[in-house]
Amino acid sequence: MRAVIQRVAKASVDVGADRVGEIGKGMLVLLCVLKGDTDAVAVRFAEKLAALRIFEDGAGKMNLSLDQAGGEALVVSQFTLAADLRKGNRPGFDAAAPPDEAKRLCEVVVAELGKRVARPVRTGRFGAMMDVALVNAGPATFVLDVENDKGSSETGVRRLE
């Protein structure tokens, strides 16, 4: 599982004319499920998201978690994070989990994160063409990889535990 996490002042996601998710201060999580990811990986991922200390304390140091900072979370599925760009000019997406499994595991991450934070977790709409808007606070952007149960990624990228 892989994500780009952006600390935001605000973020929203629209599908056509419909606003399907919106948050104030918090984190925007662009989430990609990879082949081999499991429920256990999704739970570890949610635990890590909830525990990340990427929000500033009174001294201006990144010392607070999402809950400690009173923030919200917006999770948007983004299979393009599985792109292999090593050969040629067209990305390959072989490392991405099949859509049904990816959707299910995204839902697991959202549910598990929801158990660990005080505010409701907002989402985009899986598989839809979405317009994501954000104001990056900092800017502060992070990449998180969590190993699947096989211990490696399909793309050969080293993952954090």
Structure summary:
The chain is of the alpha/beta class and 161 residues long.
Short descriptors:
D-tyrosyl-trna(Tyr) Deacylase, Chain: A, alpha/beta, 2 helices
Structure report:
The chain is α/β, with parallel strands linked by helices. The protein has one domain (2-145): D-tyrosyl-trna(Tyr) Deacylase, Chain: A (3-Layer(bba) Sandwich). Helix content is 19%, strand content 35%. It is built from 2 helices and 8 strands; from the N terminus they run βββαβββαββ. The protein has helices spanning 39-51, 99-116, and strands at residues 2-15, 18-23, 26-32, 55-56, 62-64, 72-77, 121-123, 131-145. The strands form 2 sheets. Strands 1, 2, 3, 6, 7 and 8 form a 6-stranded mixed beta sheet that branches. Strands 4-5 form a two-stranded antiparallel ribbon. Helix 2 links the parallel strand 6 and strand 7. Helix 1 (39-51) crosses helix 2. It is globular, with a radius of gyration of 15 Å. The N and C termini lie close together (11 Å). Residues 152-161 have low confidence and may be disordered.
